[in-house]
Amino acid sequence: xxxxxxxxxxxxxxxxxxxxxxxxPEQKPYLTPRTRGxxxxxxxxxxxxxxxxxxxxxxxxxxxxxxxxxxxxENERRFPEFFRINFSRCIFCGLCEDACxxxxxxxxxxxxxxxxxxxxxxxEKEDLLIDGPGKYPGYNFWRVSGVQVGGKGxxxxxxxxxxxxxxxxxx
Amino acid sequence: MGTxxxxxxxxxxxxxxxxxxxxxSLGLDLPYxxxxxxxxxxxxxxxxAVKQFKDENDTRGKLVMACMTPATPNARISIRDPEAVAFxxxxxxxxxxxxxxxxxxxxxxGECHLQDMTVMTGHDYxxxxxxxxxxxxxxxxxxxxxxxxxxxxxxxxxxxxRNYAGGHDLNSFDIRNTxxxxxxxxxxxxxxxxxxxxxxxPTGVFTDRTLRQHYxxxxxxxxxxxxxxxxxxGCNITMGERYGVLRRVVNRFNxxxxxxxxxxxxxYGYEYVNxxxxxxxAMLDGKRISGDEAEQQLQTMISGGxxxxxxxxxxxxxxxxxxxQRLVGKxxxxxxxxxxxxxxxxxxxxxxRTTPARIASLHDVEESDTVLILGEDVSNSAPRMALSxxxxxxxxxxxxxxxxxxxxxxxxxVREVAQDQRSPLxxxxxxATRLDDIAAKLYRAAPDDIARLGFxxxxxxxxxxxxxxxxxxxxxxxxxxxxxVLKSAKHPVVISGTSSRSIPLIQAAAxxxxxxxxxxxxxxxxxxxxxxxxVGLALMGARPPQEMFDSAKDATVIVLENDLYRRFLRSAVDxxxxxxxxxxxxxxxxxxxxxRANLLLPATxxxxxxxxxxxxxxxxxxxxxxxxxxxxxxxxxxxxRDHAWTSLDDVLKAMADEALQLAPVIKAAPQExxxxxxxxxxxxxxxxxxxxxxxxxxxxxxxxxPADPDSALSYTMEGAHVQPPAALQPFFWSPGWNSIQAVxxxxxxxxxxxxxxxxxxxxxxxxxxxxxxxAIPAPFTPRKSEWLLVPAxxxxxxxxxxxxxxxxxxxxxxxxxxxxxxxxxxLQLEASSEVEINLGGTAYRLPLQIAPELPDGVAAxxxxxxxxxxxxxPAWTAIRRAQ
Lengths: 171, 883
Ligand code: SF4
Ligand code: SF4
Ligand code: SF4
Ligand code: SF4
Ligand code: FES
Known about the structure:
The complex is a heterodimer.
Chain A: H1 2-14, E1 39-41, H2 56-60, E2 66-72, E3 78-86, H3 95-99, E4 105-107, E5 122-123, H4 125-128, H5 141-144, E6 160-163
Antiparallel strand pairs in A: 1-4, 2-3, 3-5
Chain B: E1 2-6, E2 9-13, H1 19-25, E3 49-53, E4 62-65, E5 76-78, H2 82-96, H3 113-121, E6 132-134, E7 144-146, H4 156-164, E8 171-173, E9 180-182, H5 197-200, E10 206-208, H6 209-212, E11 222-227, E12 236-242, E13 245-251, H7 264-268, E14 282-284, E15 287-289, H8 291-302, E16 308-311, H9 318-328, E17 333-334, H10 339-354, E18 358-359, H11 362-367, E19 370-374, H12 378-381, H13 383-392, H14 395-403, H15 411-418, E20 425-429, E21 441-444, H16 447-461, H17 473-487, E22 492-497, H18 503-518, E23 524-528, H19 534-539, H20 548-551, E24 556-560, H21 570-579, E25 582-587, H22 592-595, E26 599-602, E27 611-614, E28 619-623, H23 636-639, H24 648-658, E29 681-682, E30 713-714, E31 761-762, E32 787-792, H25 806-811, E33 817-819, H26 821-826, E34 834-839, E35 842-850, E36 858-862, E37 875-877, E38 879-881
Parallel strand pairs in B: 1-5, 16-17, 16-24, 18-23, 19-20, 19-22, 20-21, 22-23, 24-25, 25-26, 29-30, 32-36, 33-35
Antiparallel strand pairs in B: 1-2, 3-4, 3-5, 7-10, 8-9, 11-12, 12-13, 14-15, 14-26, 27-28, 28-31, 32-37, 34-35, 34-38
Helix pairs in contact in B: 10-18, 14-15, 16-17, 16-18
Bound molecules: iron/sulfur cluster (4 copies) and FE2/S2 (inorganic) cluster.
């Protein structure tokens, strides 16, 4: 009896507390940039596609909802020929973002992607690719990696010596 | 065997081996780079350091390189010793100082031995900030892609390329930390084994350039055990597929056959499977029809008591040939092999069946201490054997090393002892071969003269072999010398084959082997056969091809995976199709024969089929579907099957009941009902990705994995990831060992057979019957105005299927006609002038090449590579300047 009364009293007191419930969708909550919502593919500071089609996001994905195919352009720059995420399977765990060595794949605070049709939750590269670098502005993988790629020769990456001269006679 | 103590535990180890070998054989993880199970140790990388202790009271011990220290009984070592652990971590850190930040775009990633070893030693953070050393890369041809920055200077590549494979154009340059591995200048790698660099190199310096065109990580490949279909040796391979495209071929270890290496035709020929020329639909008189309609059409065409003629194929599986033979009846089943080649092939199979010698596996060839090759250019017709032969010529130096008590795995020391010493390899060939450089004695002559030499050697070895009449003193002398050396050998091997289409050659080789056996030696014999299943076809009891031309009149002709225009004269094939009532063709690549089909049935390639091939060793080996074929495609045996058969096992059973000599074929691999812990063996690795997105663009509902009624392999990643029987091993992968070097974990002792025995069953063992062959040919006499035209084999181009792979096609030679300078002078021709020949009533024009090695009166054209490919060779022809 006493406990019932105490409970009722507590409930009554809550009426005077500040509200935490937000009137979504009329009211939008603030979500930090690190919130794990809709996945995007970003571009490097030069505007090129960041994804180098390394398949690491695909293999780390616990529900296997990422599929892609690597290809090269005429400058030997590797990029995904297609890149597909099946959001009807995605659990927004963010492991792909963790695995990505180029900051290409990023989770964003947008979560409003419900659909009546599951088909519409299959996103292709065109749907995923955004115009900017997302959360990580400065990084460009190709400037760091040692491969030769459109315009950047061997030994021209960050922190590299010029290529050796095999025919040099000095010790 | 002896006892060694590893971290205080007593373990059994092979005392003829080194500590690294011992540790790995025991299943322990010890990182290494420069040691290779087939190439031994040189101690170059310093990665395999362990602590060794004098005795049980020694607590300080000393660091030694496990690969350079013998596993002597009672050796005490520690892998876990903190100093050894720190040393190994420091070595990796040193290698990583200059390593580029490439893994995401490096094709080695995910199966990189360097990644594995780095993880194993625990090095995970770069502490240095100074600029990295870089190198220029080179263009090395269509097969191998070069990224020199990734090199860790282990020297495996040059040791393989130069020492093991006998190549010259890959080398190390420069000094210090800038040692460079590549060619003197950009260009196609010359060795036909260069492709192995992609597996030998523990890093991404050398990667598969064909894979790069459709790159997929190892973890994403659907893989299954397969057999190379590009020559008769039957090397074991693993193929990988993704999104319906065949991505690559890697070696599948079989200690009796290919060991750790393949040839480039086998590794890179796979691309024909993805060719635009593939037949993807059934066609009725040029109109596309569905698979079911085709099935009905086939039924109407073959039922109702019509006379059926079946033409088999040496490049189709046993099962497909058998299904056809069963359908048309034994008396109507013909071998679809060129006439001369068929005669040579049946002679070879006959010789293999009756020889008292052991039929040599590639492993036997490698262990032979004396070699006699009669008229077969193995580097081009059975390429992997050439690599084994190079190792065979080292056998004598192994004895010298053993005398000095140098263990065989001490590679550098053994080679130092050997210097230029080689075990004798006697090479008789019509033209130049890629083994000339290791031959103790070279003998160049027309095939008949080589056969005479062979018969003479046999007679010199054992007098019961027939004597050769009318031998010149010179040849007699040569035969005597060779006979003496062969007789003093421990394990001599005699090699010949069908590519010259010469029966005397084969019988001469068989006589030598028999004479050696009669002299009490343990000799072996190897006869290279045409294509991947020539021996299998010969064992089916097909009727000889010449009889098919008459029988075809007014009959329904069924051609199985065979382009008859490649094998017979155009006019004859035209007549055959013209006189037949109807033609049904099953094949997978469009060709002139498929163009003649009334009913064309799309067949699957090896990559999409299950079946069995019999190698020239007489080894029946099963290959499995890598991926399910598109719905309209079917295996030929499925198109042609008896309706009582529902699966491969039914075909095999029917075949075993019918053809007794083929009964053991059933044992080549476990049946469909085989299970491990209730599950089939998965074709997909446990990390296979994208399952729920792969086909989401077509339908978001994931399809059920395809069923496989024909094998104990499944199209999933589910199942026990434990070692299956070797014939079912879909790929080599073990925790912490992602690269192909994981094969270590599947052998009972490193370098020995896979646990449970190597795949395949041998169909012939030495027999006690048989006798010497007596049909000794007359000596070759050049003619005045005619040349003997012989076929020359080319590793790239002579084989039909692989020549549809772009890389192989790029390296195939242009058509030519070769003769020696004297011949050209006689005709007043110079190199590259156009000549005209006449074969089977048709004139052909070819540019002339001067080949100084060819004997007088003999000319050669590349097999399968000229418009004259249907003409029967060898043939006599006049050669003149084209008008
Ligand atoms: S991990 Fe990053 S770079 Fe690699 S495939 Fe995924 S998105 Fe592309
Ligand atoms: S060689 Fe291995 S470690 Fe080096 S970049 Fe390639 S995958 Fe990475
Ligand atoms: S290229 Fe590869 S095999 Fe050759 S030394 Fe470098 S890492 Fe070793
Ligand atoms: S030797 Fe023959 S079977 Fe072996 S890989 Fe080469 S082509 Fe294939
Ligand atoms: S593996 Fe022992 S030193 Fe390289």
